[in-house]
Amino acid sequence: METVLIVEDDRAYARATTNWLVKNGINARYVLSVDSAKEFLDNHDVDLVLSDFRLDNGNGMELLEWMNTHGYRIPFLIMTGYGDIPGAVEAIKKGAVDYLPKPVQTEKVLGIIRKALERKRRDGNTKQRFYTSKSPLALRLQEHIRLVAPMDTLAVLIRGASGTGKEYVARQIHVLSGRSDASFIAVDCGVLPKELAASELFGHVKGAFTGATENKTGMFAAADHGTLFLDEVGNLNAEVQRALLRALQ
């Protein structure tokens, strides 16, 4: 059964919220501090964290940042009082799913929790799917990935020699973005036949050229609302590269 971890320093409120979730068919446990939450996460499978923003020995933001650093990809919801809303909004920017004004024992909040659990069920593992190193450079790379992933309007340039993991980074950005429910399509432009590259990328309608016997959906359209990763773009001919530039602009 899926488990929700409640992090709340008010024992009575933590117990009441736990009982409310259990009565609604959701397994829940509670802890009273950030340190206890870290220990619980390290030793138990948790599917969602519901944390108060302000805690006696820290705050929900501190816990969220620790989870990000240690590779946990668990839906994180912030409970907040009226005065904590600016901080809760900042937590959203750092990856929290939502912030929930107290009291949280409402049908609306129950729906938010169930939706977050369902999305995690689709996504799979509790910890991130990718192997990551603990070296300072790798951790800095993970931080950059986590920062840019939610920003749909931000252009991201991934550079590196062959074999250094550019597609790996692109997939991580996709998984952590709002597009994660849609497709990630990786295209090796170096293997596309020169005469068919434009058709493969942009599609065509029946009769557009000799041999076009039916409509074809291009990879741009197939990746609609998802991510299209183009590798070895330099191998495309100049005409297709110009068309690609116009499409990206």
UniProtKB/TrEMBL annotation:
Keyword set includes Transport: no
CDD domains: AAA
Domain spans labelled Sigma-54 factor interaction: 131-249
Residues where 4-aspartylphosphate is found: D52
SMART domains on file: REC
Keywords: ATP-binding, Nucleotide-binding, Phosphoprotein
GO biological process: phosphorelay signal transduction system; regulation of DNA-templated transcription
Pfam families from the UniProt entry: Response_reg (PF00072), Sigma54_activat (PF00158)
Superkingdom, natural source: Bacteria
Signal sequence residues: none
GO molecular function, one term: ATP binding
UniProt keyword Phosphoprotein present: yes
Database matches in PANTHER family: TRANSCRIPTIONAL REGULATORY PROTEIN
Name listed for the protein in its UniProt record: Sigma-54-dependent Fis family transcriptional regulator
Lineage of producing organism: Bacteria, Pseudomonadati, Bacteroidota, Bacteroidia, Bacteroidales
